[in-house]
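Note to self: keep these together.
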Amino acid sequence: MALSISLVVLLLIVVFMLVQKAGLKSAHALVCVLLGFYLASSSIAPTIDDLTTNVANMIGDVDL
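Structure:
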Protein backbone atom coordinates (compact mmCIF):
# COMPACT_ATOMS: atom_id res chain seq x y z
CA MET A 1 0.00 0.00 0.00
CA ALA A 2 2.80 2.42 0.85
CA LEU A 3 4.39 1.79 -2.54
CA SER A 4 1.24 2.69 -4.45
CA ILE A 5 0.79 5.90 -2.46
CA SER A 6 4.41 6.83 -3.12
CA LEU A 7 3.98 6.13 -6.83
CA VAL A 8 0.84 8.26 -6.94
CA VAL A 9 2.65 11.14 -5.23
CA LEU A 10 5.62 10.80 -7.58
CA LEU A 11 3.38 10.80 -10.66
CA LEU A 12 1.44 13.78 -9.31
CA ILE A 13 4.68 15.70 -8.88
CA VAL A 14 5.78 14.78 -12.42
CA VAL A 15 2.47 15.96 -13.90
CA PHE A 16 2.61 19.17 -11.87
CA MET A 17 6.13 19.88 -13.09
CA LEU A 18 5.13 19.16 -16.68
CA VAL A 19 2.24 21.60 -16.39
CA GLN A 20 4.45 24.27 -14.83
CA LYS A 21 7.74 23.89 -16.70
CA ALA A 22 7.21 21.96 -19.92
CA GLY A 23 4.07 23.67 -21.10
CA LEU A 24 1.70 20.73 -20.63
CA LYS A 25 -1.79 22.14 -20.78
CA SER A 26 -4.20 21.41 -17.96
CA ALA A 27 -6.67 19.86 -20.40
CA HIS A 28 -4.02 17.37 -21.53
CA ALA A 29 -3.24 16.49 -17.93
CA LEU A 30 -6.94 15.94 -17.30
CA VAL A 31 -7.15 13.59 -20.30
CA CYS A 32 -4.21 11.62 -18.87
CA VAL A 33 -5.96 11.36 -15.50
CA LEU A 34 -9.16 10.15 -17.14
CA LEU A 35 -7.18 7.60 -19.14
CA GLY A 36 -5.72 6.33 -15.88
CA PHE A 37 -9.17 5.89 -14.37
CA TYR A 38 -10.40 3.99 -17.42
CA LEU A 39 -7.29 1.80 -17.47
CA ALA A 40 -7.78 1.01 -13.77
CA SER A 41 -11.21 -0.44 -14.49
CA SER A 42 -10.18 -2.30 -17.65
CA SER A 43 -9.04 -5.88 -18.05
CA ILE A 44 -5.43 -4.75 -18.50
CA ALA A 45 -5.26 -3.28 -14.97
CA PRO A 46 -3.88 -6.46 -13.30
CA THR A 47 -1.14 -6.68 -15.92
CA ILE A 48 -0.13 -3.05 -15.32
CA ASP A 49 -0.19 -3.65 -11.56
CA ASP A 50 2.00 -6.74 -11.89
CA LEU A 51 4.44 -4.85 -14.12
CA THR A 52 4.81 -1.91 -11.74
CA THR A 53 5.16 -4.26 -8.76
CA ASN A 54 7.88 -6.27 -10.50
CA VAL A 55 9.78 -3.12 -11.54
CA ALA A 56 9.54 -1.74 -7.99
CA ASN A 57 10.84 -5.04 -6.62
CA MET A 58 13.73 -5.03 -9.10
CA ILE A 59 14.64 -1.47 -8.07
CA GLY A 60 14.37 -2.44 -4.40
CA ASP A 61 16.72 -5.38 -4.89
CA VAL A 62 19.52 -3.23 -6.35
CA ASP A 63 22.41 -2.84 -3.92
CA LEU A 64 24.34 0.38 -4.21
